[in-house]
Each structure stands twice: as structure tokens, then as C-alpha cells.
Amino acid sequence: MRLSKGASILAWAACVSGQTLTLPDAVDRSVRQYPSVRVTREQVQSAVAQIQLARTAYLPRVDAIAQVDRATHNNVFGLITPTSGIITAVTGPVLNSNSGSNVWNSTAGFLVAWEPFDFGLRSANVAVAEASRNRAEAAVVRTQFELSALTADAYLTVLAAEQTVKAAQAGVERSETLRRIVDALVRSELRPGADLSRAAAEVAVSETQVIQAEQAVVMAKATLAQLTGAELSQLEVTPANLLALPPEAYLAGQPLVNNPIVKEQASVVEEARAKLHSLDRTYFPRFQLQAMDYARGSGTLLDGHSQGGANGLGPNINNWAIGFTATFSILDLPALRAREAAQSASIRAENSRSDQIAVELKGRLNSAQAALTGATRIAAVIPAELEAARKGMQQATARYQAGLGNVVEVADAQRLLTQAEINDSLAALGIWRAQLGVAAAGGDLQPFLDRAGR
Known about the structure:
By secondary structure, the chain is an alpha+beta fold. 62% of the residues lie in helices and 12% in strands. It is built from nine helices and six strands, in the order αβααββααβαββααα. It has a four-stranded antiparallel beta sheet with strand order 2-3-5-6, with no helix packed on it. Helix 6 runs antiparallel to helix 7.
């Protein structure tokens, strides 16, 4: 779907300088810089960081501490329930006295803890993070794809509006010609003055049609400028071969499984399954290998007397230990089962959403193919319609000038010709737009862009 790097640079330079953009250039520009694409790309970077975070669980944990305080050293025998760190413990024997004297205390140490095995929990968490990254990457592709289709449709809308303006302007010229003819006949008193009023009204109607068509051009360009980030005053499009009938029917389309919308939904399902697998790995004991080394200092003697000066300000009694710890939250099973049930329901919901997306895309593809068939059939009869409308206008004008017809017949014939010219100018674009719909439903716009940009 993307163009080469050199082509992208040329597209950028062309738009900045106010030159015309081809359809592939407009699509490439919108994909590169539209904000929604940048948002999804940053979400990918966030998901990549989450993978790195999940992998850090394999590393040992090292905690270090250093502390100096000055406090009293009265101790009391007994037990209290956990207090979340509000009440500070005092080590040492219980003294008979309740003294207010205080001393220096210090401590320094570190603890290394490592989980040697985890029954697959850490790898499951890494898999969840990787699934999240895959889903984010699929979201980028889907956003780029939808934006490309939207930009291509907006580009075709601009071309259609410009072709309508040209056909409407030809209608104005014919109305002006009719007004001059009627004016000459009225001045010669060969036709009533009411004919001149009707001819003037036809001119006004034709001019109104041109104004409406020009307004449609500006609005279509405003949409395209929004998608491409170009200045509206500089934005120009080139039809390339889009005004010619496509060389082939292009009815097949791509398999729906290749659609970025389907692929993104598949990644959502995989992410949900990875989360369920991670939950399955949760209800197991946790094991920790631990090694610690610490030293403490205190300005209090064993009999409770305080030492003076800087005693206790630095650690002087050392201890070390190596241990193995196992923990198991036995009563977490009911909560875990509820979480697994909720996650299983999420997986079923995402699978159902996948089915819904497949049905919608199939319906969209069928509609696009029907539109393509209809547009092709319409384009086949347009030349006959245009030729008949031209002859009808010539005959109506000749009859009016010969005094055998009225001005209403000429006005109706001119309107039919204008509409036939509009239909003729839009016939090829109608087929191209229908082909875009087929390509969008199939999920691959590159063949369409290659054909449109030739």
C-alpha cells in the first residue's frame, strides 16, 4: 500500500510547492502523517516496552537499605497484629525501666531474591505482552488501510465534482446561446416576450448548478486536504487515467481473511487467549531463592545502659543468611476461577465479533461487486444516451428557430444534454469507485492504486 521512499519524498515536495497530487501520492501522504496513524504507532512502542517489562521478571531482585536514626530503646514483651509499618519494632531484651534516654542506631544491608522456576507464569506474561504488541501493530495496519481507502474515495469525489463543474459550465454556455437566440426572435417580434423570460430563467438555473458544483469541489477538496495535511489553496489533483474506462472488470477481490480489519480482530482474540493462559499459570506456589547480608549498630548495651558519643552511628555487627521460601495463596482459587470465567467470556465475545466482521465484510464485498456490475452496465449505455441527447437538442433548437416548437422543448432538451454529459463524465469514475469498494472489502488497495496511478 505504501510507495517507495523516493516516491514519498517526491509526493511531499509536489504538495508543498502547490503542484498536483496523483491518487497514490495523496494516499501515501495521508498514511504518513495523519494523526490517527501516529497514535497507533506510539501504541506499538508502548506495547514493545511492556514486553521488556515482562521479561524483567526473569531477573533476580536486589534490594539494598541503609538507615541511621536516634531513638529510645525501651522494649516490651508481647504480640500485636500487623500495623502496616505504623508501629516500629524494637529488638533486644525487655528492660525493667522505662527510660527516656536515646542512642544512635544504624543498619545497612541488601537482599537478593530470585525465582528459579514459576510453572510457566513469567513466559505466559511475556506472551501476553507480545500479543498486545501484535494487536497494536495490526491496529496500525488497519488504520493505514482505512485511511488509504478514505483518502482514495475523497480523491475520486474531488475528480467527480470537477467533472460535474465542467459539464455544468457547458450547460451555462448552451443556455446563454439559447437566450441570445430567443432575444433576437423576440426583438424581431417572431416570438413572445415570455420565451425570453423562460430562457433567462434557464440561464439562472444553469448558473446555480455551476455554483453548487463548484461548492461541491471546495468541500471535497477540504476533506482531501484534511486527510493529506495539504493547504486547501494549494491542493490540486490530476485525473491520470481515472477518466478512462478501466481495462478490466476487476470483480474478484481479495480473500476476506487478508483484510486488515480481520487480521486485527484475530490478534485481539489471540491476546485474550494469552491472558487466559496467564491466569491458568497463576494458581501455583511461588518459590524464592534468597541471600542476604546486613550489619547493624546500636548505642545500647545488653543491660540497657546507653553508650555515649557516636556509638551506634555506624554498623558494627554483621549477619548473613541464605534461604529458600515457598508461598502459596490457598484461598485465591475461587477468585481465580471467577477471573478465568470472565476471560473465557471475553474470548467468546471476541470470536463472535470476528464472525460479525466476516459477515459485514462479505456483505460489503457483495454490495461493491453489485455496484461495479451496475456501473459497468451504465457506462456501456452512456454513449447512446449522450448521442441521443445531442441530436434531441439540435432538433429542438432547429424546430424552435423554424417556429415549429416552443422554448420549453429546447430548455428540456438542453437539460437532458447537460445531464447526459455529466453522466458521461462520471461513468468511468463510477467504475473506478466501485473497484475501490471491491478492493477495500478485500483488504488490499495496492493493485487498485497501481492501476489508478499509471
